[in-house]
Amino acid sequence: MVLIGSDNPTLPFEPIRQACAALGDHDLSIGPTVDGGYYLIGMRAAHLGVFLHDRLEHAAVYAQTLARAQHLGLRTHAVRECTTSTNRQTWSACAAISSACTRRSRPNTRAALERLSLVRASRQPLAVRAVIRPAVRGR
């Protein structure tokens, strides 16, 4: 099983695929973030001991989790490092690269970008826009 964080709306599929594949010969796969955390964690079996930290510090949680895995004798595999969307700068980057981020294709991401004023909010409800667009195109 591989779990991913919810704060990375533009996460590509490739690191998830790599994490799943790594579980063929590793006990744990993990994706580090630039801020010291991780955005993805996968395990072949439940090893809840990896989550037992003496003092959990976000900036060190990736290192702490790897240390716990090593202490438990688990074989680990790290996928590529990633940035999570935890600040306005990252959300701005998300808006810039997600021009296809519509209320229909990614409604939660679009709503977050609208709340942060990083994209212009749509005034029409989704259902109304879906009806209006085909009529406009036909002109």
Q: How many domain units?
A: 2
Radius of gyration: 19 Å
**Structural class based on helices, strands and sheet pairing:** alpha+beta
Oligomer: single chain
User: Describe the biggest sheet?
Assistant: 4 strands, mixed
Helix content: 25-40%
What is the overall pLDDT average? 76
Net shape: elongated
Distance between the termini: 50 Å
Order the strands across the largest sheet as they lie in space.
1-3-2-4
Can you walk me through this structure?
- The protein has 139 residues and is of the alpha+beta class.
- It folds into 2 domains: 77 residues, Spore Coat Polysaccharide Biosynthesis Protein SpsA, Chain A, CATH 3.90.550.10; 50 residues, no CATH class.
- It is 37% helix and 12% strand.
- It is built from 5 helices and 4 strands.
- The protein has a 4-stranded mixed beta sheet, with helices on both faces.
- The radius of gyration is 19 Å and the shape is elongated.
